[in-house]
Amino acid sequence: MLIYVYLFIIILVMFLLVRFKRFNLLFSVIFTLIIIYFLLNPKVSIQSAKSGLVIFINSVFPTLFPFLVVCNMLIFYDGIVVYSKILGPFLCTPLRLSNQCSLALTISILCGYPLGAKYSTKLYEDGFIQEEEYTRLLNIASNTGPLFIIGSVATSMFGNTYWGYLMLFANYISCFIMSLIISPSKSKSINIGNSKDTTYNFGSALKNSLEDATKTCINVAGFVIIFSVIISVLKNNYVFNSFILFLSSLLKVNTEILNSLFLGMTEITNGCYLLSTTKINIVMKLSLASFLCSFSGASIIAQVHSFTYKHSCFSMGKYFYRKLLQGIISFIITYFICTINLDTLSVFNNAMATSKIFIIPFMILLILSLFIYTLRTLFDRS
């Protein structure tokens, strides 16, 4: 009973600090408590930081760094113009975006968080898109990568590759629905013209690409490590665990579900792993995992903010609520499909399906584009 009194006092103090806009004091108190925790539990803190570094080196860096270098080189040699002309009509039409957004969409589809935000910001800073479209693109070109959903979550954690395709489908359809919910830009798209005749010096382009990729990777490594520490603090914190128990008894919800959701909304990898170990039915597991993948979590949102903080047109509040809405939509889609018939997911042979991971998103958008074009043709009265 005493712990509930402490929890009430802590929540009340935080509420009052927020209510009277004493944010500096609030964060000072929070960070002071974290420092005290580090001093009292140095072994846990060091171990969690090492764990975050190992995750980055083994899983994130090998795919992120070369991809960043190649994408930067692509931009140096007019990749934005090329992609807008070739892929723009297919990728951007169903999403009500200008063709210039095709590069950011492609990168988001192939690699996932947070590169969609990075290259959306690059398009805006280079003048290819305007403010309204930039803020809209950030929510649309913001997806979980297919390798993470199909490989890490479905295959490694849930033990079934087919379920990954369901979550991937829900992720992209929820993104498409968000493009319908968020009003398109009223400003005219910028004509980017033809490819430039000038060619950059290859050595100079490679040097700049490497520098930019290295800087981005260091930033991402910092986020992965610090959020690994935060997750460790929460997992081993008596107050947090007591709060989860209190909520569980109040809402009559399984403690494992609440724990997975709270930790997953902080960092999705941990949340999805905890969901895979919970003793709940597979339909709810997949639906909650789909929610976490579409929502992305505080770690990814912080990484997105690291690219967008310089631009006043970007609202972190709007981005957060839109990602939350996208997560809910993804949850509903996954739950609906699973409720109809979960067995229908096993359509393709595992080896065949795995070899076509990257084709699926483009096929979905191509079908949507053709569908919308057909509708416009049928109902065009001009």
From TrEMBL:
Regions crossing the membrane: 6-39, 51-77, 162-182, 216-234, 240-262, 282-304, 324-345, 357-375
**Coiled-coil residue spans:** none
Q: Which InterPro entries match?
A: Spore_IM_YlbJ
Keywords of this protein's UniProt record, alphabetized?
A: Membrane, Transmembrane, Transmembrane helix
Superkingdom, natural source: Bacteria
Q: Which NCBIfam families match?
A: spore_ylbJ
| UniProt name for this protein | Sporulation integral membrane protein YlbJ
Taxonomy of origin reads: Bacteria, Bacillati, Bacillota, Clostridia, Eubacteriales
